[in-house]
Amino acid sequence: MKIVFLDASALGADIDLGAFSELGEVEIYKTSTNEEIFDRVLNCDVVITNKCKLNENNLRGAQNLKLICVTATGFDNIDVEYAKSRGIGVCNVVGYSTNNVAQLTAGMVLSLINKQTEYRRSVCDESYSRGGVANILSPTYHEIDGLTWGIVGCGNIGRRVAKIADALGCKILVNKREATSDFECVDIDTLCRKSDIITLHTPLNEGTRGLIDGDRIALMKDGVILVNVARGAVTDEIAVAAAVKSGKISGFGCDVYSTEPFGTEHPYFEIKNMDNVILTPHMAWGSYEARVRLCDEVKKNIIAFFRGEIRNRIDLK
């Protein structure tokens, strides 16, 4: 069996991929451009990727290819229909990063609501030391207890975030495809209107692309806090940046972008240094523990596939 890693750098330099050599010949590439993918997958049985886009253009020559393994939960970078037409299996990994993403989500919300960036700066720039007063209480911040926290997408991560929100004393509203009795479920417009805090945890598909656009931002309360740890394209990024600049969104946290990494032309480039903005480099999923779990799950997916077992098969859904 020949296994090819197309973008191993996405897993971090501190992760040992040596265990995959137990399964067969392994070729590891730190990164792969679209042009390089075609040649690199020609003779392989298994392709492992995180972010590389795989479709007919770069897979048509891979006549030995039997399985695509995505080192993530989201798989919008894979043309699953093309894989099905070729009889190529596609596996993802679910649940490995639930704790991480929920942890970052809560951390962003708490930091934004507590105005932590501004208060930390008052100490670091020595204005607190020079001020002669024991307290600095500007800008004003508010208790999270009693606020309404809207959760868009209530899978493993959304549910974990809901538990954290509940522990903090928030009222919880949920928007999801199938209603649940665990939380109050509402349509997306109602959630936008009623929530003080909105966090996004939904997968990207044709139903969620651009879900949070200018019209829905207009429905939101003035001063809403918005955190996106789903996919960048779930939001209209231009509309979000404009709402941050205007103050409609009083605090914005984001770990995902429609272009990764984003460049100087991206709408968030202009707001990245604002005190009420926390942008992180798509790292919410990636604690060391989560990445070890992820690689172990990918290895189990490969073993199960070649034993004829069904495990994390996207192409069979």
Description:
By secondary structure, this protein is α/β, with parallel strands linked by helices. 32% of the residues lie in helices and 15% in strands. Strand 3, helix 2 and strand 4 form a beta-alpha-beta unit. Helix 4 packs across helix 7 (156-167). The longest helix has 19 residues, at 288-306. The two termini are 26 Å apart.
Short description:
With 317 residues, the protein is of the alpha/beta class. The chain has helices at residues 34-40, 56-59, 80-86, 98-113, 116-124, 127-131, 156-167, 188-194, 214-219, 237-246, 288-306, and strands spanning 2-5, 25-28, 46-49, 67-70, 89-91, 148-152, 171-175, 184-185, 197-200, 224-228, 249-254, 277-279.
Known CATH architecture of the largest domain: 3-Layer(aba) Sandwich
Oligomer description: single chain
Give average pLDDT, whole number.
Answer: 96
SSE series:
EEHEHEHEHHHEHEEHEHEHEEH
Give the helix/strand layout.
Blueprint: E1 2-5, E2 25-28, H1 34-40, E3 46-49, H2 56-59, E4 67-70, H3 80-86, E5 89-91, H4 98-113, H5 116-124, H6 127-131, E6 148-152, H7 156-167, E7 171-175, E8 184-185, H8 188-194, E9 197-200, H9 214-219, E10 224-228, H10 237-246, E11 249-254, E12 277-279, H11 288-306
Parallel strand pairs: 1-2, 1-3, 3-4, 4-5, 6-7, 6-9, 7-8, 9-10, 10-11, 11-12
Helix pairs in contact: 4-7
